[in-house]
Amino acid sequence: MNKKAIFHTIIKDSVLVFLGAVLGLIALLLVHLLPTDPMRKHVYWSLDMIEKEFEDEILIEGYLPTLTGNFTDCLMLEHAIYVSDNHGILDQVLNMYRSESCETEDGWWPGYSLKDYLENIPQPRETEYSRYWHGYLLVLKPLLLLTSFNTIRLLNSAVQLMLAGSVVIQLCRKKAYMLARAFLISLPFLFFVSTYASLSLSICFYIMVMALLAQLKYDGAFDRKGIYGEFFLMIGMATAYFDFLTYPLITLVYPLCVFLYFHGKDMGGNLRKMISCSARWFYGYIGLWASKWLLTDLLTGSSAIKDALNTLTARTDSAEGYTRIGGFFNVILENIRAYGNGCYGILAVVILIMLLRDILKSDRGGRKRLPAGVPYILLALYPLAWYFAAQNHSQEHWQFTCRILAGSVFAVLAGWAKVIGKEECGEGE
Predict the structure, then answer these.
(1) End-to-end alpha-carbon separation of the chain, Å?
(2) DSSP codes, 39-79
(3) What pairs with residue 97 in β-bridges?
(4) What sections of 196-323 are H helices per DSSP?
(5) Residues 282-339: pLDDT tens digits?
(6) Which residues, 6+ apart, have CB-to-CB distance to 53 below 8 Å?
(7) Alpha carbon distance 348, 338 (integer Å)
(8) Closest Cα to residue 375, out of 241, 249, 276, 250?
(9) What's the DSSP call for residue 425?
């Protein structure tokens, strides 16, 4: 791609990011017109369950990554129902105010603020959370209008299972059986067992599987029209819009593995495609995020840009108590530690048996296809690059940033399928 083409792509992508920001803002304004009284009542119905998890949100004792995300979920629930006569809709949408109780003996916990708000207990202060888009409210507010948080959890488990099953079905329809197997094997590394119980930790999973389903259904059209770059740009935008900073990288790694699997022809071409799609995803992710800060400051006169940059500096700093390099290795070990138990030991043995079986059944052409696996190895290293860049965040929140490593598992197994498999994995239909 020459300089002129690169410049044209940047301009086009910037326009798409701008339009995405405007549409995203309008959508949030509209959803804030919904009545909050029924939502508040439905959250109150679930208060007993929410309160039980204030200080113990681990579903399986001894396994910290099986947390329900109660801390962040309580923020989300209060954002969904919070109303103040001091703020108009635009101000509320952009700055995302909520009431806040005093710290308890165990430290500040948003669950107590939510409980006090629901019980109409006066709270000493109001705070804002302007650095995120809070796009999850487009889904959460209508759901709370209809039902309780308890029911949403049950619905979460059903929908997530159906979506994961749909991805496997679509891959099998394309005769990508080994890729379907790779997807299934990677799910436990996402701690799929507990994802349904958390609002905040479900977001990236939903974006990832819905991106895969769109990709598998419209793969041929995306390829013929040459709009795969725009597709990855929009995935990045959607991740910035809906997600907190949880484990966003899986929304890039999974779709990119599938794209290379069906459209990769040679190692050089694959590497170019991988770099191009990754750059578009990051541009959409960072661009839409930054547009939120800019819109907030321009339309409300707040200091969202300053707050966001201060937070960004802190989150990308080296791990606490370490140099940059030392912190990098410490963060890797902290995140890998999540899988240091009997469950993943047994799973590793099962995977090795499967791979040995693949070798015994493979043809002699695997060696010739080895170069095709190189991009997947690089994709498997993406989480390590993320840990290096976001060291402080990945150290402090390893209980959920470890889920990024599921992308490494999927990338390695997808690359294995590309090299060993006898499937037809050329261009999509």
Answers:
(1) 26
(2) HHHHHHHTHHHHHHTSS--BSSTT-GGGB--HHHHHHHHHH
(3) 128
(4) 203-225, 228-242, 250-263, 267-300, 304-315
(5) 999 999 999 999 999 999 988 889 988 988 888 888 988 889 899 999 999 999 999 9
(6) 68, 70, 111
(7) 14
(8) 276
(9) -
